[in-house]
Amino acid sequence: MKHIKRKAVELWLKENQDIINGIGLDKRLGFPSGTIQKFLKYERRLSDRRITTLDRFLNKITIRQYGEKIDRNTNQE
Q: Are 14 and 20 in contact (CB under 8 A)?
């Protein structure tokens, strides 16, 4: 399971690096400054704890965005 989470998080970060504010994400998640940048630019490995934190954060924002889409579509009808 860890391997699947790691791959999913790493893939999401790499695919969305052009829209990610690394410093803001570091602050929001309580990571040391430059953690996300070092992963993206220098391919530095993220710890299992940080992968878990990122996974929880991504699940949280994805569910919220999905719920907002449903609400918008319901209100338009």
A: no
